[in-house]
Write a structure and sequence with these properties.
Blueprint: H1 8-16, H2 25-39, E1 45-52, E2 55-61, H3 64-76, H4 80-87, E3 90-93, H5 103-111, E4 116-125, E5 128-136, H6 144-198, H7 202-216, H8 220-233
Antiparallel strand pairs: 1-2, 1-5, 3-4, 4-5
Helix pairs in contact: 1-2, 1-6, 2-6, 6-7, 6-8, 7-8
């Protein structure tokens, strides 16, 4: 790790200054991983695990070793980061050469040069849980003070991540609603054109548009937009 250590107070302030309008959820998660790497003593590599619908994946990581260690756990279906995420607890592995809870994963971690780890559960949203995973290259890399600091950091990180998730979800919903409103508007315009051309009712015009959509295997909005565009181009 070649980045300069960061004072915890500065790290907490940095998490609070994240502007959700200037980044997305992935950007916030990467920020969390990078700040944790610089703030928590003994942290050589850091990753963030997210679990949604029972499926776990690494959403951010500072190095390839952290990613591999996470993914081995997902393949095994068990491990410190999964237990921490699902239980919302702190899971410490003081020495991977002696840990017997997850022997296959611990042996792989030791072979990668990781001799200790610390995973802290992150409650983000009802449908999304996660864990902050911190990997050290020395046994007992995380003492009592280090664990306490990591827990405090995780608390600040959880708030930033929950806000980012909510913002991301709200923005997506707003985009869908905007798209739906635009689709409805163009369909109403197309219905008006068909009513004028066929001298039919609104329901009959809509049925005509639906039939064209089905016959041509195109979305109703695309059929409507094409009709409106054609009329606009006519002299």
């Amino acid at each position: 790790m070649d980045k300069q250590p960061l004072d915890p107070t500065e790290a907490f302030a940095a998490l609070g200054r994240v502007k959700l309008s200037e980044t997305d959820l992935n950007g916030v998660l990467m920020k969390v991983a990078e700040l944790a790497q610089r703030t928590i003593p003994g942290a050589e590599e850091v990753s963030v695990t997210l679990v949604r619908g029972g499926q776990a994946h690494t959403a951010a990581y500072t190095g390839a070793v952290a990613l591999r260690l996470d993914e081995w756990q997902y393949e095994l279906g068990r491990g410190p980061c999964i237990d921490a995420a699902e239980g919302g607890v702190v899971v410490s592995v003081p020495d991977t050469s002696k840990d017997g809870r997850w022997p296959s994963w611990a042996a792989a971690a030791y072979a990668e040069g990781v001799q200790s780890s610390l995973s802290i559960g992150l409650p983000i949203q009802d449908a999304v849980i996660g864990a902050l995973n911190i990997y050290g290259t020395k046994p007992d890399a995380f003492d009592v003070d280090g664990v306490t600091l990591a827990q405090t950091f995780a608390g600040y990180a959880s708030v930033a991540m929950a806000n980012a998730h909510l913002y991301d979800t709200t923005a997506t919903l707003a985009n869908h609603m905007q798209s739906a409103m635009e689709s409805r508007a163009v369909i109403e315009q197309a219905k008006g054109i068909v009513m004028g051309q066929r001298r039919c009712t609104a329901d009959e015009a809509f049925a005509i548009l639906v039939k064209v959509s089905q016959d041509t295997n195109r979305k109703l909005r695309d059929v409507a937009a094409a009709l409106v565009d054609n009329v606009r181009r006519e002299p």
